[in-house]
Amino acid sequence: MIAPLITPLLTSAVCVFSLGWPACGALRRLGVIDKPNARSSHAVPTVRGGGVTIILTLLGAIAGLAWTACEWGLPLAPIAALGVAVLVLAVVSFCDDLRSVGARIRFGCHAAAAISVLAVIGVPAIGLGAAGSLGLALVGFLWIAGYTNAFNFMDGINGLAAGQAAVTAVGTAALALAAGVPVHHPLVWLALVVAGAAAGFLPHNFPRARMFMGDVSSAPLGFLLAALGWWLACEAGWWLLLPVGLLHANFVLDTGVTLARRIARGERWYEPHREHFYQRLIRSGHSHAYVTGWELGFQIVIATAVVTAVHVGGGWWLLPVTMVVALVWAVVFLHAERRFRSATAERQQ
């Protein structure tokens, strides 16, 4: 059982890592450089858009899965829908890396990608009739489009987005297997390809950033992770929406709380800023390696707990896991806020 799972993981990791060297040189020659500004968490001009290596690998893997689906009689429509959405998001996001694209265009593409996937994959069966299905479809839209943006917002320090994608994608594959999804299901393979691609990019971005992934891959990665979680709930049961949400608690809670706070203060929530909790920790004096390692350590623990709960006790064990996740991140956020305010007060003295 282990061997077929290792193949997509290692293959995609090697592809992205190998492509990173020529991609970095090409982007540098093209002048795709991220120059530090008042909102940046880095101080040195760095190549941006290195995530094209992730996108090329993902599209190649999706094409291979589509061919395999045709040969083996597996579901082709979801794979094709995901591939087209990833391609469109990558093109629009790369344009944003080269020259800023308006927020309405970006959000419109995210919304269109979410709608296209929902139209093909559908919604989990909950037995509440047309009204219940419509309500769940709205939840799915907000989940996929919202997480696509959340992941994009959280790509701000070395290694955080790539590490989160790697751990969460492995967690998604493990959660699918724990819920009874077959090993050779495209959902499992695609999750492992995402994990490997993100892991393969990590050495180019962490602990020292040779290049940034950029919007070209952060938006498609967020979209894929959210869509795969939704697909899992459609395949194995709507109750899996809770463990899927817990797998993404890191980025969801940070983005959600920060967004709510900015809206409450009357700020333009859609504009770039440095108010995320992980950014506040950086501004408090912590290194990128410290914050990324700290957050990914928690993510590994949470993913392990969620998968174990589903494997051992199904839905019954999810309540205590949910409480633990909420408590852990409440402590994380309080620590970040306290540290930031203390550092700010010291600088003002």
Task: Give an account of the 3D structure.
This protein is mainly α. It has 13 helices and two strands, in the order H-E-E-H-H-H-H-H-H-H-H-H-H-H-H. It has a two-stranded antiparallel ribbon. The longest helix is centred in the last third of the chain and has 31 residues, at 318-348.
**Whole-number count of domains:** 1
Instruction: Give the biggest sheet.
Output: 2 strands, antiparallel
The tally of helices reads 13
Stretches with pLDDT under 50, minimum 5 residues? none
Helix content: over 70%
Overall pLDDT metric: 89
Whole-angstrom Rg: 20 Å
Proportion in β-strands: under 5%
Please supply descriptive tags for the structure shown above.
349 residues, 13 helices, globular, two-stranded antiparallel ribbon, mainly alpha
